[in-house]
Write a structure and sequence with these properties.
- The structure is a single chain.
- With about 475 residues, the protein is an alpha/beta fold.
- It has a single domain, classed as Glycosidases (TIM Barrel, Alpha-Beta Barrel).
- It is about 35% helix and about 15% strand.
- The chain is built from 14 helices and 14 strands.
- Helix 11 links the parallel strand 12 and strand 13.
- The longest helix is centred in the middle third of the chain and has 26 residues.
- The two termini are about 30 Å apart.
- The relative contact order is 0.14.
């Protein structure tokens, strides 16, 4: 979960928050997670996300020094942390270890790793010495930092030409995603792009002693992607095969999907949609589902006991915009009479990928903890834009079929004080089946990287006390 990208995600989340809250107030309430509370057992695992850019190469990052790595891991162990998610492939497309498939990054922004140090292996070795679990994460479908023009797509013009995702701008013109100022997402529907990701996944699982592999950014850029000619042809074939639509070849592309767009807080959103819009959403969610199936098979073919997991934003109500259905296939948003998802289409539930996971981490990145703390949500049992509501919603749509690790962002949102961080940690641990994911390590030790401008060690330690 790239440190800089997290700001973009939160900005989009803030926009969507206002839209979704209005919808929830008129939708009524639904029952929380389906499990019997008498049999619910909270997860006690405490996982810290370790972003490479900020912790290794950031101005105030500590993890480019082996001695500071050891000291930091000692402190994490002392306060009750049980595991790490180690960023192993970033948004540049480069890896934090020597790879046969990607360029290795050892220096960035004027900071570098000690000569000859395999950062990923060193981190794993030191974590094992402290009995910490280790999960390696990869930024799956991003291959270039658009703010600096650094990364795989900027190194290889042919790669960029063929694989960079194509988005619609506000005028409906198809353009490359980097021309909009965003990172270089690539088209997840391309078999070559999937194979590249799978090769890196297999390489990590084969070569490193990890407990799990976590996919991050395993999605489309946003609702405005991917409108490449490749996706057009694949979508036409999808319509022919699934719906016997032989007239699809004559579609107006992309007008029959989205005919007009608007810009809202930096996001390009549909205004008027065409006859194929909902089937387009179904197609994209199917692309991601099928990739997850391949990724799981890849992991298990090498080491069957390795956990296969994902990080996703907890806002399921709008997550269809990035082409992802992280719910259980037993949850059908089209036929849910309590929650009316107007974007859902028949059989959308078949794109759900909960059942393919061993672990799910969600970003419950909100400062409102309890529903009762906001008059607009006080009478609801379901609401995507609070910690309590999003955890309930996640358990509702996943049917408690996968261990859930609720995530807290300690640095990018406006916590009133450290006590609120502590309270959120306690709530998440008490109400999730896997435990908690703390984002990000740098926010804890570097006050320059959190909005309270204070070290957060004590806030985390207090939150982890029984």
């Amino acid at each position: 979960m790239n440190y800089k990208l997290s700001f973009i995600c939160l900005a989009a989340g803030s926009l969507l928050m206002g839209i979704a809250c209005k919808k929830k107030e008129t939708a009524g309430s639904v029952k929380p997670a389906p499990s019997d509370s008498s049999t619910f057992t909270p997860g006690k695992n405490v996982i810290v996300w370790v972003d490479a850019r900020s912790n290794v190469f950031g101005t105030y990052g500590r993890l480019n020094d082996t001695a500071q790595i050891k000291t930091t891991l000692d402190t994490l162990k002392d306060i009750g942390v049980t595991g790490l998610v180690i960023d192993s492939k970033g948004s540049t497309g480069y890896t934090m270890y020597p790879s046969a498939y990607a360029k290795q990054v050892t220096a960035q922004d004027g900071k570098s790793l000690p000569a000859g140090v395999d950062y990923l292996r060193f981190m794993i070795t030191e974590a094992r010495k402290r009995s910490l679990k280790v999960y390696a994460s990869i930024v799956t479908f991003v291959e270039g930092d658009g703010s600096k023009n650094v990364g795989t797509v900027f190194d290889d013009a042919a790669f960029k030409e063929k694989y960079e995702t194509i988005v619609c701008d506000v005028n409906g013109k198809r353009v490359r995603v980097t021309t909009t100022g965003r990172n270089a997402f690539v088209n997840p529907a391309r078999p070559e792009i999937q194979d590249r990701a799978l090769n890196i996944i297999k390489e990590i699982v084969q070569q490193y002693d990890i407990d799990g592999l976590i996919l991050d950014y395993a999605r489309y850029t946003d609702i405005d992607a991917d409108f490449s000619d490749f996706s057009k042809e694949q979508f036409i074939q999808f319509l022919k095969t699934k719906y016997n639509d032989n007239d699809a070849v004559n579609m107006n592309f992309p007008g029959d999907i989205v005919s007009s767009w608007k810009s809202s807080s930096g996001q390009t959103l549909p205004v008027n949609t065409g006859k194929y819009y909902k089937k387009w959403l179904l197609y994209r969610a199917g692309v991601i589902h099928d990739f997850f199936k391949r990724a799981r098979e890849t992991v298990k073919s090498v080491k069957p006991n390795i956990n296969f997991g994902v990080y996703v934003g907890a806002w399921y109500v709008t997550y269809y915009q990035v082409g992802v259905n992280w719910a259980s296939q037993d949850y059908d948003p089209f036929n849910d009479q309590a929650i009316r998802f107007d974007w859902a289409y028949p059989k959308y539930n078949e794109t759900g990928y909960t059942e393919l996971l061993d672990i799910m981490m969600t970003g419950n990145y909100f400062t409102q903890i309890l529903l009762s703390e906001n008059p607009a949500t006080a009478n609801l049992t379901y609401h995507w834009w609070s910690v309590e509501g999003s955890i309930r919603g996640t358990r509702y749509v996943t049917k408690d079929k996968v261990p859930l690790y609720g995530g807290i962002d300690m640095g990018n949102v406006d916590w009133a004080n450290k006590g609120e961080i502590t309270r959120a940690i306690k709530y998440i641990r008490a109400n999730t089946t896997g435990g908690i994911m703390l984002f990000d390590l740098v926010h804890i030790y570097a006050p320059q990287y959190n909005r309270l401008k204070q070290p957060l060690w004590d806030a985390v330690k207090d939150g982890l006390q029984q």
